[in-house]
Design brief:
Blueprint (H helix, E strand, L loop, with lengths): L4 E12 L2 E12 L3 E5 L6 H8 L7 E6 L2 E2 L5 H7 L1 E4 L11 H5 L8 E2 L2 E2 L1 H15 L15 H13 L5 E5 L7 H16 L3 E5 L3 H7 L2 E6 L2 E7 L5 H9 L20 E10 L3 E9 L3 E6 L5 H8 L6 E7 L8 H6 L2 E4 L3 H5 L6 H6 L7 E2 L2 E2 L1 H14 L16 H15 L3 E5 L7 H16 L3 E5 L3 H7 L2 E6 L2 E7 L6 H8 L1
Parallel strand pairs: 3-10, 3-11, 6-9, 9-10, 15-21, 15-22, 17-20, 20-21
Antiparallel strand pairs: 1-2, 1-4, 4-5, 7-8, 11-12, 13-14, 13-16, 18-19, 22-23
Helix pairs in contact: 13-14
Bound molecules: adenosine-5'-triphosphate.
């Protein structure tokens, strides 16, 4: 860090209707610094950064970069001023190639007399992808062909190849597997070594302390403090975020409790072309079965396969009563819940209210003689959303207006409200703040106690170790290791089976 102030935010403010999302925030950031930005879900982190990056208009106040007041109307203006962002959700556009996404808004060098030189663009994009070590992603291929993580990697290239002065990374690591994360940390370190600046938003406080120089804290839209990362603990950060002490009990503490032998779901010889290869396992009553692995290991496809949402699946997924799950309606009817990792595209309907999202799988239960009962639906949605501590104006608010973590709470509220007996949760705490994470883990333990069964697919090894009765490690589409719950089981043992 060279102590030269590069960015000054003065009295930055933003309201959305009655929500005061960012309330008079002032802070400064140095050149060559990695600055963490933390706060509970809905505390205004994304809104603050999105104003800096031209995604939202500035409600009030000013940003000054290298001594010059910024006047940014859109993301291209921000890029031209030297500011880039990797957003929390999908930041690439479907219907375009990888190369077109990387150069979106910056096609100039490839235009000759109004015609785009696609070959040159693809060649240059492929050179960049290779240089970043992401060579398996092909520049000329449609972005839709790639999964969530690969699309994030493309976004990383897009946001960094122009060497921005300020790179904002908004809750990106939880979308990445272990190897993707290491790549991102390397990129952050390189930005810092180059005298440029990273603003890093994350709910993983360990990661924040390990990879930042200083951390700024927001609470309810207000600036609270900036601390030096090497001088504070995770508990200090939690206290600053929440405003009070929060307990340290996080994961399950029980070990050695036997899990029932009763099988509730049998997966046999499931193959999905290019994703899964002859996968078989049983899920037991009251079991939390964890799935872990590196990117491309196939674990996210397991969730889809169990929920009847895979294309071209071979093999069988069978419930204890003999019902075969081959499609989503049967899965829902049979009380299977599924929360996808790709929340915005696969789990929620963004342009719908919280209420309509929460009631979706429970419509049959909420109707009287085939007619939907509006009041009952509202009451139900209210109850479920509040159980998940969703920060919202009311259940009529559109899901698109919620912060990332609060969207995730709506997904969980929907399935927990349905009373599902089998829950398939892919990255269940992605983007969730520490306080609510604690509540979700407690809830998972409670569901287990009630005899419900959970498949938890997770990129978070501590979460797998802390919550699972059994862990299946995937590699190249196959199960490569099986571990029973054990206090001596550690990250290294799991990783050894992943690589
Ligand atoms: N487009 C919008 N319309 C209305 N309200 C919004 C909009 N975007 C954000 N908000 C609200 O502003 C507040 C701050 O949201 P923001 O996304 O900045 O939080 P965050 O700290 O990034 O949260 P998370 O950790 O969950 O991502 C929330 O109450 C959110 O519902």
């Amino acid at each position: 860090m060279d102590n030269r102030t590069v960015l000054v935010a003065e009295h930055i403010d933003k309201r959305f209707g009655i929500t005061h999302a960012v309330n008079d925030v002032s802070l400064t950031v140095s050149a060559g610094e990695i600055r963490g930005l933390i706060g509970e879900n809905g505390s205004g982190k994304s809104t603050f950064c999105q104003m800096l990056c031209g995604i939202y208009s500035i409600g009030g106040g000013t940003f000054t970069l290298d001594g010059e007041e910024l006047s940014i109307r859109n993301q291209v203006d921000a890029n031209n001023a030297g500011i880039a962002i990797i957003v929390q959700e999908m930041g690439t556009l479907s219907g375009l190639t990888v190369a077109e996404n990387i150069y979106l808004g910056h096609e100039g060098p490839f235009m000759h007399k109004g015609i785009k030189d696609t070959r040159a663009m693809n060649r240059e994009a492929q050179r960049l992808l290779d240089e970043y070590g992401f060579g398996r992603i092909k520049a000329g291929v449609m972005i839709d062909h790639y999964n969530f993580e690969d699309r994030k990697l493309v976004e990383i290239v897009k946001a960094t190849y122009m060497k921005p002065k300020i790179l904002v990374i908004d809750e990106t690591t939880t979308a990445l597997s272990q190897n993707g994360r290491l790549e991102l940390y390397k990129i952050m370190d390189a930005v810092r070594a180059d005298g440029r600046t990273v603003i890093f938003i994350s709910h993983d406080l360990g990661e924040v302390l390990a990879h930042t120089d200083k951390v700024s804290v927001l609470r309810d839209g207000e600036y609270i403090d900036t601390v030096v990362s090497s001088e504070v603990t995770e508990d200090d950060l939690k206290r600053l975020m929440v405003g009070r002490e929060i307990g340290s009990a996080y994961y399950r503490t029980d070990f050695g409790q036997p899990v029932s032998d009763e099988t509730v779901l049998s997966v046999r010889n499931v193959t999905v072309n290019g994703e899964l290869e002859d996968v078989s396992f049983d899920l037991h009553k009251g079991e939390i079965l964890g799935f872990g692995g590196l990117s491309e290991c196939g674990m996210h496809e397991i969730g889809k396969a169990v929920f009847g949402a895979s294309w071209n699946r071979e093999g069988t997924v069978t419930l204890a009563d003999g019902t075969e799950i081959n499609d989503i309606p049967t899965a829902i009817k049979k009380s299977i819940a599924y929360a996808s990792k790709d929340r915005d595209n696969e789990s929620i309907i963004l342009n719908e209210s919280i209420r309509n999202n929460v009631v979706l799988p429970s419509l049959e239960d909420l109707s009287n003689h085939g007619l939907l009962n509006g009041r009952k639906m509202t009451r139900f949605a209210n109850e479920q959303a509040k159980n998940m501590q969703t920060k919202m104006q009311n259940v009529n608010q559109f899901v698109s207006d919620l912060s990332g973590g609060n969207k995730q709470k709506v997904v969980l509220a929907r399935w927990l409200g349905k009373g599902s007996q089998i829950l398939v949760l892919d990255s269940p705490t992605r983007g969730i703040d520490v306080k609510v994470k604690q509540a979700i883990y407690a809830l998972m333990a409670e569901l287990k106690e009630q005899g419900r069964s959970i498949i938890m697919i997770s990129e978070e090894i501590p979460e797998l170790l802390g919550m699972s009765d059994r862990i299946l490690v995937m590699k190249d589409g196959r199960i490569n290791g099986e571990f029973q719950r054990d206090p001596d089981l550690n990250e290294e043992t799991l990783i050894a089976k992943m690589v």
